[in-house]
Design brief:
The complex is a heterotrimer of chains A (184), B (361) and C (246).
Chain A (H helix, E strand, L loop, with lengths): L1 E9 L4 H14 L3 E6 L3 H4 L2 E9 L13 E4 L2 H8 L7 E5 L13 E5 L1 H8 L5 H13 L4 H12 L7 H17 L5
Parallel strand pairs in A: 1-4, 4-5, 5-6
Antiparallel strand pairs in A: 1-3, 2-3
Helix pairs in contact in A: 1-6, 4-5, 4-7, 5-7, 6-7
Chain B lengths: L3 E4 H11 L2 E6 L7 H9 L7 E4 L3 H13 L3 E6 L1 H17 L3 E7 L15 H5 L10 E3 L4 H18 L2 E7 H5 L1 E4 L27 E2 L6 H22 L2 E4 L6 E4 L2 H17 L5 E6 L1 E3 L3 H7 L5 E6 L5 H9 L4 E6 L8 H20 L1
Parallel strand pairs in B: 2-3, 2-4, 4-5, 5-7, 6-7, 11-12, 11-14, 14-15
Antiparallel strand pairs in B: 1-8, 6-13, 10-12
Helix pairs in contact in B: 1-2, 1-6, 3-4, 9-12, 10-11
Chain C lengths: L23 H14 L6 E4 L15 E3 L6 H11 L4 E7 H7 L1 H10 L4 E6 L2 E2 L5 E2 L18 H4 L5 H6 L4 E8 L3 H19 L4 E7 L3 H4 L3 H15 L3 E5 L3
Parallel strand pairs in C: 1-2, 1-3, 3-4, 4-8, 7-8
Antiparallel strand pairs in C: 5-6, 7-9
Helix pairs in contact in C: 1-7, 3-4
The chains are: A alpha/beta (184), B alpha/beta (361), C alpha/beta (246).
Chain lengths: 184, 361, 246
């Protein structure tokens, strides 16, 4: 199985770090993985995206021309990357910022109000972790329990202070999908 | 051993440190800035570590020359326009037979071009680049792991043959992260003694390292000496990877990022169409070029599909290797465009069936 | 009988290729004498220039590495950072240091590299046949300024010591000449001081030496020496330009 996911949004929304955390988690769960960020002028323009490829065998191309998943944290990403999605692919979006208009008929979509959920936790900075939790729930790409266990290693000593908030956010996002099984 | 998720540029840096590189000199240019940034931090932790952000590429490569002649393992890195500036120094390193490792994280060109991944500097890297009659050893990694392994190896090759060695990657390989195991120094590895380095003429005759040879007969002999050395390197150091060649009746030839995309395309094609028997030869050293591998393949395979992220540079080496045997197909995406495996797969499949039709006629 | 004068150990016993009246041979000898006297021959590593003095390595019996034109201070930087205890000096002409190698010289000085630069200023490109150098005097005729250097279009001559003076990490800058016995002795003292500065690990030192080039100046040797006093030293005043106590 080879699954490609594009994470996209504004610079500063934690798009790249979310992709990196997923990639680290995949590596720790013994999977093949590549993480490919957009860089340079593209990043300086204010948008950011990265591609995470997770596979059970060696990954040839790290580029996603037809990703299975797109995670869009803002409106421009929602419009731009849904066109790339593989037919039958899944588009997870930040419903706090994205108005889900003009959606392709051959894909599934799901909104998560990550900004509101993050406010409930009391830390808007961990909104991206809510999205990552939700992504694990919809994709079943990695084991949620093992990922939760590895989170201290992944975030490292530098983020020890924020670990609790990140864990809470990750769980909140995961359970949000579980609790709202049939969408909103 | 523990794998670590690392950027390609950082993997190069850490592998260099593990190989005993104590000196880094560079000048900022995208998309390789993460490498000097990494080295500035790591070399501060290494005993005798030297990091200088030089005033120019010219200064940087000549600081490498100085550190090398003083006996240290030294490295510099840049991206295409900066590598052009380093050519003077690379020529002097080659002429003076001094080891050094030079990293080129290629971008689109010519001129300022752009900062997207490209393979535009193949000619420059494999055809000397600088002035004079010399060849550079050029490794073309295709993964973060290979960036680490080949960088580590490059320092040995540079020292063993007293030659500058280039690691030729591109923006994608530099910027992407993959799990990697950084090579560790092997104990007991014997390297030739550096009996040419400058330490001060204490208890021995004074040494002189230079590339100026005014006597034409001596200069001619020096040129032939460099040729003999490169022949030795060709015999012993040429590397390539074969992929799905056993049943193939078309071979894709690609290196670096392009080879990864080609592998993806081949996997996709073979999954979708069992009749499509395509394999790949991936040069890992593009200089020396794996001529033998291609000639051997040409004994049974007639169609060679060269794919490059350029308008076609390595294709010349394939043509030279084939010496008129077989048919060469070419697909190129220059300018920093990174095509998808799907796009490349379509092109390969089209040429494949055309070739089969032609053979039947 | 006691020997009072002999070839220094650091100078090879070979004839030099320099033109009659050229200052390089004097400067080579001064360096060789100092390396002997200071016990530095076995520690010294020299980076000669591209230019007339490129063949200095046939005359000085010490470790040497050739640098591309203008890059001597960058090469010296690399050597000195790896071997901080060796005496590392570059030997550069005016074109090498003040035209094609300005950036390297300026930045090595600004970093305060603990190296010494022997800067030979003879106001022309010697080896290539007498073209205009960055230090060519205003109005001076060269093969590329047949009507004389026009400071309005070609710029006035560059005073290297004064240019480097303002950089915080330059420690010792002196301008001397080798056109008279007195000046030769002063030059030797200056180089000695510069090597001493480096031995104390105090930072960047440079000695600029006004040196005759009779061939390209189209003068005889004696006239060249007079010309240094009467014309050149007015544009490039002799003396200590900067000395930071160390």
């Amino acid at each position: 199985m080879l699954i490609k996911t594009i994470f996209s949004g504004f610079g500063g929304q934690g798009v790249l770090s979310t992709g990196q955390i997923l990639a680290q988690a995949a590596m720790l769960q013994g999977r093949f993985v590549t993480y490919l960020p957009s860089y340079g002028a593209e990043v300086r323009g204010g948008t950011a995206n990265c591609t995470v490829t997770i596979s059970d065998e060696e990954i040839a191309s790290p580029i996603a021309s037809e990703p299975e998943f797109v995670v869009a944290l803002n409106q421009p990403s929602f419009s731009r990357f849904q066109n790339l999605l593989h037919s039958g692919g899944f588009l997870l979006y930040n419903s706090s910022l994205v108005e889900p208009s003009f959606v392709r008929g051959d894909i599934e979509t799901r909104g998560v109000p990550i900004t509101e959920l993050a406010r409930q936790i009391g830390n808007v900075k961990v909104a991206n972790m809510i999205m990552l939790g939700a992504f694990i729930a919809v994709s079943s790409l990695l084991s949620f329990d093992r990922m939760l266990k590895h989170l201290p290693d992944i975030l490292g000593a530098g983020k020890a202070k924020l670990l609790k908030a990140n864990q809470e956010a990750f769980e909140r996002g995961y359970h949000f999908i579980e609790e709202h099984e049939h969408g909103d | 051993m523990n794998k670590k998720l690392m950027y390609g540029t950082h993997a190069i840096g850490e592998a260099a440190i593990q190989a005993g590189c104590t000196c880094y000199f560079g000048y900022p240019i995208t998309p390789q800035n993460e490498l000097p940034e990494y080295m500035s931090q790591r070399l501060a932790e290494v005993p005798g570590g030297v990091f200088i952000q030089a005033e120019s590429e010219l200064a940087a490569i000549n600081m490498v020359l100085g550190a090398s002649v003083a006996g240290a393992r030294a490295m510099t890195s840049s991206s295409s326009p900066g590598i052009s500036l380093k050519q003077e120094g690379i020529s002097f390193l080659a002429g003076s037979e001094l080891p050094a490792v030079i990293v080129n994280i290629m971008r689109g060109g010519p001129g300022l071009g752009n900062i997207a991944p490209a393979q535009s500097d193949y000619f420059q890297a494999t055809r000397g680049g600088g002035h004079g009659d010399y060849r550079l050893v050029v490794f073309a990694p295709a993964s973060v792991q290979e960036m680490a392994d080949l960088t580590f190896h490059a320092f040995d090759v540079a020292d063993e043959y007293r030659t500058p060695v280039m690691i030729m990657g591109d923006g994608m390989l530099g910027q992407m992260m993959e799990p990697v195991i950084i090579p560790k120094p092997r104990k007991g590895k014997k390297m030739p003694e550096k009996d040419y380095i400058l330490t001060g003429a204490r208890g021995r005759p004074a040494r002189l390292v230079k590339s100026l040879i005014l006597d034409t007969k001596d200069m001619e002999e020096h040129n032939w000496k460099l040729v003999r050395k490169f022949k030795r390197i060709e015999e012993r150091e040429t590397r390539w990877e074969g992929y799905m060649l056993d049943d193939a009746d078309m071979v894709v030839i690609a290196y670096g990022t392009a080879a990864r995309i080609a592998k993806g395309a081949i996997n996709r094609l073979r999954r979708e169409d069992a009749n499509l028997r395509v394999g790949m030869i991936r040069p890992i050293t593009v200089s020396p070029f794996p001529v033998k591998a291609i000639r051997e393949a040409a004994q049974t395979i007639k169609d060679f599909f060269v794919f490059e992220m350029s308008t076609g540079q390595m294709v010349d080496d394939v043509r030279l290797a084939l010496e008129g045997q077989g048919t060469i197909h070419f697909y190129g995406r220059p300018g920093g465009v990174v095509p998808s495996a799907r796009e490349l797969g379509r092109s390969i499949a089209r040429r494949y069936y055309q070739a089969i039709r032609k053979r039947k006629q | 009988m006691k020997k009072v004068y002999q070839r220094p150990r650091s100078l090879r016993d070979v004839p030099m290729h320099y033109c009659p009246g050229c200052g390089h041979s004097i400067i080579h000898r001064l360096i060789a004498e100092l390396l002997d006297e200071m016990g530095l021959r076995e520690s010294a590593i020299c980076v000669p220039p591209a230019g007339c003095a490129v063949l200095a390595y046939y005359y000085l019996d010490i470790d040497m590495v050739e640098a591309p034109h203008g890059r001597a201070t960058a090469v010296a930087t690399g050597i000195k950072r790896v071997r901080p205890d060796n005496l590392v000096f570059s030997y550069q002409g005016d074109g090498d240091l003040a035209a094609i190698g300005t950036a390297e010289a300026l930045h090595a000085a600004n970093r305060g590299e603990n190296i010494t630069v022997i800067f030979v200023n003879n106001a022309v490109y010697g080896m290539t046949g007498g073209q205009m150098a960055p230090t060519t005097l205003s109005g001076m005729k060269t093969t590329t300024t047949p009507a004389g250097r026009n400071p309005r279009s070609e710029g006035p001559p560059i005073r290297v010591c004064e240019l480097l003076q303002g950089l915080a990490n330059t420690v010792y800058l002196e301008r001397t000449a080798v056109n008279s016995p007195a000046n030769v002795m002063k030059t030797k003292k200056a180089i000695k001081k510069a090597f001493g500065v480096q031995q104390k690990k105090a930072g960047f030192s440079l000695v600029e030496i006004l040196s005759p080039c009779p061939t390209n100046w189209r003068m005889d040797a004696v006239a060249s020496c007079t010309w240094i006093d009467e014309v050149m030293a007015r544009e490039f005043p002799l003396g200590v330009i900067k000395e930071v106590p160390c």
